[in-house]
Amino acid sequence: MSHQEDDLQAHPSYNNYEEVKELSKGAWGRLILVQYQKTKKFFKMLRLPYLSVENKKLADDDVAILKFKSKYLVAFVEAFQHQNDLCIITEHCPYGNIREFIEELKLVPDKERKIQIYEILFQILSGVSDLHSQGILHEDLKPENIFLDINGNIKI
Question: Tell me, what's a Pfam family for it (predicted)?
Answer without folding.
Answer: Pkinase
